[in-house]
Amino acid sequence: MSQDALVFYSRVDNAQAWQAALAAELPDLDVRIDPAVGDPADIRYALAWAPPAGFFARFPNLELVINLGAGVDALMKRDDLVPVRFARLNDPGMEAMMASYVVFAVTRYARDIHIFERAKRRGEWEYVHPRPLFEIKVGVLGLGELGAAAAKALANMGFSVTGWSRSPKDIPGVTARTGREGLERLLGESEIVVCLVPLTPQTHHLLGERELALMPPGAKLVNVSRGALVDEAALVEALRSGQLAEATLDVFETEPLPEGHPLWALDNVLITPHVASITVPALAARDVAESIRRVRRGLAPLHEVDPRRGY
Ligand code: NDP
Predict the structure, then answer these.
(1) pTM
(2) Ligand 1 centroid to residue 241 C-alpha, Å
(3) 267, CA 20 to 30 Å: which among 53, 62, 157, 304?
(4) Atom 36, ligand 1: which residue's CA is nearest?
(5) Over 70: is that where the pLDDT of 64 sits?
């Protein structure tokens, strides 16, 4: 038995698929699937999604925790974290899937498909003259690994794209903004806003009544990051009043979205069940293996998370 083992914990991911993918990338890695962890002192790495309270403290030699997903908000708000390095998953497959969802949602509005869907249900031929894509201003909140991939895909298609992040960015074809003023400018000029910032104490209810009111009347919102970035009560109100004409929502403050929630009844909302992007073990295992190789050499893992900033 090695003393350089990884513990895998998830009740939703396929442990065997991960074990096979990791074996292909890093054959010398001893992968142990919880609860069959053997001697806890052997464990140096954890690849985990939503483990029970006290999980990390069980392993005295733990060095690295890799969150089994891109969003680390649930991990970062735990009160049982131990002082080790934290990383998260990201891979080209996840970026491509997220970009495909965002391109679909934005294009559906830009090409008036939502109007034709309703017209078809009424049995009516409703002609709406198409608009060139460069006339359509799209704002992307968050220009990280997923936000930048989505913003680039939209820019490549010909949309006018503005993005917003904490630090300045230089992305070809994308106007980059930062700070509160940058956020307000982006909201004021974007016909379609895509939300791809992580949920942190700073971004909780980033879009409330005031921010939604800054958007041009009849604007559209696409939220693919985390539900609590948007004040859901204010969102429902904006969708009822017409301040927001449409929303495509993949994430919600409570998931699954509870039966009877007002969003279910709104005809101008497209709801998908948190499926915008997923991790494919065969692709993501490459980065997990590389992170472990790096940590073995005393280097930082890929996609490292900074617990102080929360993402
Ligand atoms: P990253 O950490 O790579 O990027 C986050 C981006 O948000 C960065 O550009 C960052 O700025 C910006 N940001 C963070 N905090 C602030 C702030 N306070 N003000 C302004 N900008 C801020 O994350 P990813 O792109 O990989 O993922 C984004 C989110 O997508 C995840 O956190 C997760 O919640 C969600 N997700 C949803 C999925 C789904 O299926 N619906 C699947 C996967 C992820 P800077 O660049 O300056 O650091």
Answers:
(1) 0.97
(2) 29
(3) 157
(4) 225
(5) yes
